[in-house]
Design goal:
The structure is a single chain. This protein has a single domain, classed as Rossmann fold (3-Layer(aba) Sandwich). By secondary structure, it is α/β, with parallel strands linked by helices. The chain contains eleven helices and eight strands. The longest helix is centred in the first third of the chain and has 14 residues. It is globular and about 50 Å long. The model has no long low-confidence stretch (mean pLDDT 95). Bound molecules: S-adenosylmethionine. S-adenosylmethionine (SAM) binds next to helix 1 and strand 2. The site of S-adenosylmethionine (SAM) has 21 residues, from helix 1 and strand 2.
Length: 264
């Protein structure tokens, strides 16, 4: 297990999430401003899902920070804002964000499978796009349950097993496309979601999420995110992204968002 965690850490150290999208020095103030503009317009459902107002004056932890778009917004409303990530490169990126924007972040480099915070100490835990990269995911979910207060809220996202990509695009590509023949579904998931060097990424169904979060009450599920070219190769981009998001994205989208309340 230690070996896979060290591979995962090296992968995210070598390319902290989001740094490939923006052609500016990653630790500069301009980088963060541009990245945040891109992130908010590309994922228009993201801030409504977080419902930042509900986090006002609360104690909030985010796990798996990437370039820190949501941590920044959470810090602006929360009473205490903690950010935890396995990767030192991601920590450095978020430290730079904190310096530029004076957010008062409490940043911790650790694995979600071993959260260095007290039992029952948080009102919210947020983790979008991270849990599916953790081989020992149940341990991370148990840690989230431990640090949340009774009735504390988890808000998160994992890759959706019942997506168009997983059930249609990948099987068709594996059968008919020369470059994909001989690859396993898992190779395809790794390559398509995070790049072929990604050592670990899984897809989950609602039922699997409910089983992992059995000590929580799941209060909402929604699917989001879609790439139109996977339906209409070469032409999908002519249809605005928002049209895909509001139609197929809601039914067979790439990502499964959910909220859950800790039962204690
Ligand atoms: C795909 S990025 C998601 C970033 C951000 N939440 C977003 O939506 O853009 C995944 C993040 O999870 C972190 N990560 C991976 N395994 C982790 C673990 N075991 N514990 C904490 N963070 C982890 C990575 O370093 C990376 O920053």
């Amino acid at each position: 297990m230690a070996k896979i965690y060290s591979q995962i850490k090296s992968f995210w150290d070598s390319q902290p999430c989001g740094t490939a999208h923006i052609n500016l020095p990653p630790h500069s103030e301009e980088y963060f401003i541009e990245f945040d503009k891109f992130f908010e317009s590309f994922y228009p459902y993201y801030l409504p899902f977080l419902n930042l107002e509900s986090m006002r004056d609360k104690r909030v932890l985010e796990i798996g920070l990437g370039s820190g778009f949501s941590l920044h917004r959470i810090a602006e409303v929360a009473a205490a804002c903690y950010g935890l990530d396995l990767s030192g490169g991601t920590m450095a990126l978020n430290q730079a964000r904190d310096r530029h924007f004076k957010l008062g972040l409490n940043l911790v480099q650790a694995s979600a499978t071993n959260i260095p915070l007290a039992d029952n100490s948080l009102d919210f835990v947020v983790s979008v796009g991270c849990l599916h990269h953790i081989p020992d995911i149940q341990k991370a979910v148990d840690e989230i349950h431990r640090v949340l207060k009774p009735n504390g809220i988890f808000k998160g996202m994992v890759y959706n097993r019942h997506s168009y990509r997983y059930h249609v695009y990948i099987p068709v590509a594996r059968r008919f496309s020369a470059g994909w023949k001989g690859k396993t579904s898992q190779d395809c998931v790794n390559q398509m979601y995070d790049g072929s060097d990604n050592p670990y990424g899984m897809v989950y169904s609602r039922r699997q999420v409910a089983a992992m979060f059995r000590r929580f009450e799941i209060t909402s599920f929604q699917t989001q995110n879609f790439v139109g070219e996977e339906v209409l190769p070469r032409y999908g981009y002519r249809i605005p992204r928002n049209v895909w998001l509001k139609t197929l994205g809601k039914i067979v989208g790439l990502d499964l968002y959910f909220s859950a309340r800790a039962r204690k």
